[in-house]
# Entry
Amino acid sequence: MTTATAASETTPIAVGIAAPDFTLPDHEKKEWKLSDYLGKKPVALFFYPLDWSPTCTKENVCFSQDLSRFGAHAEVAAISVDSIWSHKAWKENMVLKHTMLSDMHRKAIKAYGLFLPAANISQRATVLIGKDGKVAWVKVEGDITKERDYKELEAELAKLK
# Structure
């Protein structure tokens, strides 16, 4: 039994607690709801600061090119504060294949404790959620200009059930 509590808006969510449900619009203006996937498959949420920035561009291209590697283990969704229009343009320009969610009101970002108030954006973080709806792994990059460790990410994804 875990005694972990929900995150404050700037303290990352703890492993072992129920992942807060949310509904966000995707790049096509369709609603994407976390609870639609729970009980069916694990979910990998990739929070990132901004579309069009150098590191975020490299990462999202990697997620897209390696979607079969990451998507084999979980439903993949990337989340930032950018608008659906920015996501749509960026997705088309970069030929990205994965789901991109717009959190302009910072609801999911704050619910997962990943808000960076000084910049009014999300931290660069990965949250893996098991099929059971509990947070299985959280990794926040201390430097938002640094890419994630893809080998570590893939190893953690392989552990999901």
About this structure: The radius of gyration is 14 Å. The chain has one domain: 36-148. The chain has a mean pLDDT of 87.
